[in-house]
Design goal:
This protein is mainly alpha-helical and 72 residues long. It has one domain (11-63): Ribosomal protein S18 (30s Ribosomal Protein S18). It has 4 helices and no strands. It has helices spanning 11-14, 25-29, 41-44, 48-63. The protein starts with 10 loop residues before the first helix and ends in a 9-residue tail after the last helix. Residues 1-6 have low confidence and may be disordered. Bound molecules: zinc ion. Zinc ion is lined by residues 10, 12-13, 46-47, 49-50.
Length: 72
């Protein structure tokens, strides 16, 4: 039985992703809104574990210059 709170399955869980690579900027870009902000868990549908890893990967990608801090 699926929890009533989870609207959809976490993408990273379904694809069995254990580590989110910050170098995969194209994939991470999907989790940024037009304001270059990380979209919240409610919208992304990620579980807490992967949302945390995602945030970390995006932060790292920004430092490496792969993702923007501000809208392009
Ligand atoms: Zn997950």
């Amino acid at each position: 039985m699926i929890e009533a709170t989870s609207q959809k399955q976490c993408f990273f869980c379904t694809s069995n992703v254990k580590h989110i690579d910050y170098k995969n900027a194209d994939a991470l870009r999907h989790y940024l809104n037009p304001q270059a902000k990380i979209i919240p868990r409610k919208k992304s549908g990620c579980c807490a574990k992967h949302q945390r890893k995602l945030t970390e990967a995006i932060r790292r990608a920004r430092i490496m210059g792969l993702l923007p801090f501000v809208p392009e």
